[in-house]
Amino acid sequence: MSKKIRRAGLGIVYLAVLGALGYTALVQYDVHKSYPQAIQPETGEALQAQIKRGEYVARLSDCTACHTAHGGQPFAGGYKLETPFGNILSSNITSDKETGIGNWTQEQFDRAVRHGIGSHGHLYAAMPYNAYAKLTDQDLTDLWTYIRTIPAVKNKVLENQLPFPFNQRWTLAGWNLMFFRDRVFEPDISHSAQLNRGQYLVDGPGHCASCHTAKNFLGGDSSAYLQGGTLEGWHAPDITPNPYTGLGSWSKEDIVNYLRSGTNRMAASSGPMTEAIENSTQHMTQSDLEAIAHYLKSLPASVAIRPAAINSSDTAMVVGKKVFESQCNACHVSDGSGIRNMIPTLAKNPQINAEDPSSLLNVVLNGSEGPFTHANPTSAGMPDFAWKLSDSNIADVMTYVRNSWGNAAPAVSTSDVASARKDMNARPWLGESNNK
Ligand code: HEC
Ligand code: HEC
Ligand code: HEC
C-alpha cells in the first residue's frame, strides 16, 4: 500500500504561543541532557537470547512500519510521512556509520527512542517517542542489542523537509512541555500481572493511542483515550467497550483473533490497521494478545450515544437499498451478514456505526486487499467502486448500510463522498448511474 496513512502527529503545533513556550522550555528539555544507562547489554551466549528478545520488542513496537520505505531496505529509513506543512522522512536506523546510527551509543539510542532527542535535536512526534517513553529499561536494552545487528545500509535521509518556520526543531520543546510525559511504565500493584502487561503493550510499544485516541488542536492526545481518532482518510474506531461503536460486543477471543489474523467472526481489517496487524500484532504471542484483549475489555466504555436509525422509507434509504442489491449483495449478503472470516458483516459491526465514515468511504471508493497474515493467508478483497458509482449512489448505499440490520449512524451526504473522492485520490466516476 503506497498511500501515506500514518498519523504525522504534528497538528497545528506551530502556533506562536508554542514557539514562545518552546524557547522557555529549552532550558528544561536541554537537548544535551544525558540519561543514565540503566542496564549493560549481555555478552557471550546470553547476548544471542537478548537479541531475540530485542527483535520481539521491535515487532511489538512496529519499528519497521515507518523505518522501511516502500520497496526499500529494512530499517534504512526514507519512509515519507506527509503533514499539512510538508514532509518528514524517517531516519536510517541501520548500523551504517555514516548515514545510519552505527556510531551511536546505547545512551544516544535511548535519548532518541524514549526521550525524543535525535541526531539533529528534538524529534517530531511523528516518531512515537511519547509512547516508547514507557519502555522498560530491559526492553530498551534488548531492543538496542537487536537494532545493532541490523546490516548497514548506506542511505542518506534528509528527515526534515518542512519549510520555515516548521523546520525549527527547537519549537518542539514547547510541544513536549505540554504533551510529553517522559516516564517509564509503572505497573499498578492493585492490578493483575496480565492487566499490567496489557496496558504496557497498548500504551508503550504498541502505541495504539497514536491512531485510536483523537488529537487536540495542537496535535497532542485528547482525554478521550482510545475512543477513536481520525487519520488522513481513515477512522481508527473506538476500542473501549462501548456496546455500539466500540468493542462492547466483541469477546476477548474476537479481539485476539482480529489482532492475530486480521479477521474475526464479524470484521476484516483494512488500511493502516492491516499494516499494524501484518507487521506487528500477528507476531505477538498468544499470552500478549490475551493481555491486550483483557486490558481493552477492562477500560471504562465511552459514552454510548445511539442515534435513531433513519427510516427505511427515506429516499436515500430506498435508493441505497437498490444500489446494495445490485452491487454488494453477492459478497456481503442481503442481510449484511457477510461470510465468516472472509467478508465482513456489515450488520452490528461497530466500525459501520462510527460517526466518522472515512474508513468505510476509503474502502468503498478505493477497494481494499484485506489482511494477509500467517493465520489468514487467503483473504478476500473488496473491489473499488469509485469508477463505477456516482457520489450520490455511494452516499445512498453508505447511508443504507449504516441504518439497516440494527445499525444506526448519521447519513453520508453526496458532498461527503465528493470530498472523500478528492482527498483519498480515488478514481473519477466513469459512467451512467446503474440505479437512477
Ligand atoms: C509512526 C512512525 C514511526 C515508528 C513506528 C517508529 N519511528 Fe523512529 N522515527 C520516525 C520518524 C519520522 C523519525 C524522524 C523524526 C525527525 O527527524 O524528527 C524517526 C526517528 C528515529 C530515530 C532518530 C534517528 C536520528 O538520527 O536522529 C531513531 C533512533 C528511531 N526513530 C528509532 C525507532 C525505533 C527503534 C522504533 C521502534 C521501537 C521506531 N523508531 C518506530 C518514525 C517512526
Ligand atoms: C497506524 C494507525 C493504527 C495503529 C498504530 C493501531 N490501529 Fe487499530 N485501527 C486503525 C484503523 C484505521 C482501524 C480501522 C480499520 C478498518 O476499518 O478496517 C483500526 C481498527 C482496529 C480494531 C477493530 C475495531 C473495529 O471496530 O473494527 C481493533 C480491535 C484495533 N484497531 C486495535 C488496535 C490495537 C490494540 C492497537 C495497538 C496494538 C492498534 N489498533 C494500533 C489504526 C491503527
Ligand atoms: C467481491 C466481494 C465484495 C463486493 C462485491 C463488495 N464487498 Fe465490501 N468488502 C469485501 C471484503 C472482502 C471486505 C474486507 C476488506 C478488507 O478486509 O480490507 C469488504 C469490506 C467492506 C467494508 C468495510 C467493513 C469494515 O469493517 O471496515 C464496507 C463498508 C463494505 N465492504 C461495503 C461494501 C459496499 C457498500 C459494497 C457495494 C457497493 C461492497 N462492499 C461490495 C467484499 C466485497
From TrEMBL:
Taxonomy, top ranks, is: Bacteria, Pseudomonadati, Pseudomonadota, Gammaproteobacteria, Enterobacterales
- Subcellular localization: Cell membrane
Extract the Gene3D superfamilies matched here: Cytochrome c-like domain (1.10.760.10)
**Cofactors required:** heme c
Q: Where is the Cytochrome c domain?
A: 49-151, 193-300, 315-405
Q: Which domain of life is it from?
A: Bacteria
Q: What PANTHER family does UniProt report for this protein, alphabetically?
A: ALCOHOL DEHYDROGENASE CYTOCHROME C SUBUNIT, BLL4482 PROTEIN-RELATED
What is the protein name given in its UniProt record? Alcohol dehydrogenase
- Record Pfam families: Cytochrom_C (PF00034), Cytochrome_CBB3 (PF13442)
Q: Name one GO cellular component term.
A: plasma membrane
Binding-site residues for heme c 1, renumbered to this chain: C63, C66, H67
What are the protein's UniProt keywords? Cell membrane, Electron transport, Heme, Iron, Membrane, Metal-binding, Repeat, Signal, Transport
**What molecular function terms (GO) are annotated for this protein?**
electron transfer activity; heme binding; iron ion binding; oxidoreductase activity, acting on CH-OH group of donors
May I ask which residue range the UniProt record assigns to the signal sequence? none
Q: What is its main location?
A: membrane
Q: How is the cofactor bound?
A: Binds 3 heme c groups covalently per subunit.
Q: Indicate which residues the UniProt annotation says bind heme c 2.
A: C208, C211, H212
Protein species of origin = Erwinia typographi
Name the residues that bind heme c 3: C328, C331, H332
